[in-house]
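Journal club prep — side note

Before the paper discussion, L.F. wants everyone to see what a predicted structure for a comparable chain looks like in token form. Sequence:
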Amino acid sequence: MSPDQLSTYLFSNSALAAMGNFLDRSTLFAFDIDGTLAPIVSDPGAIGIPDTVQKEIAILGKRAQVAVITGRARSDALQHLSIAPHYLIGNHGAEGLPGWESRTQEFVLTVKGWQDQLAELLPAENRRGIFIENKGLTISIHYRHA
């Protein structure tokens, strides 16, 4: 089901009426960006969250709590969101949870160590189709093109 089809179904009059039976301001809806709000694409920087999806999420946010939980850095996620979710959790949970700022330096040092190890174990010339992305507080290994 495409994001537009999901948006049409999830936010249809009958679906909204059904949600109204249990929906209140304390209800939490959580969404990922890649593969949920936006289609998976070969280049992570080329994603686009359809305007229709963003508008519907904004409408939902007026009736319930909305969280976006993503593997992307929060700063990256914000570049793709035209809405302001109640909660934005980035870097696979390393950003956005209470107290995360106090661990930033620890995460940066850990990621630097991982990056150094990966460079030694898998030199750039041997990565054919593998992209190692340092997200600051986490590291991702993209292998869609391998």
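L.F.'s comment for the group: Helices lie at 3-10, 13-19, 51-61, 74-80, 104-121. Keep this in mind when we get to the figures.
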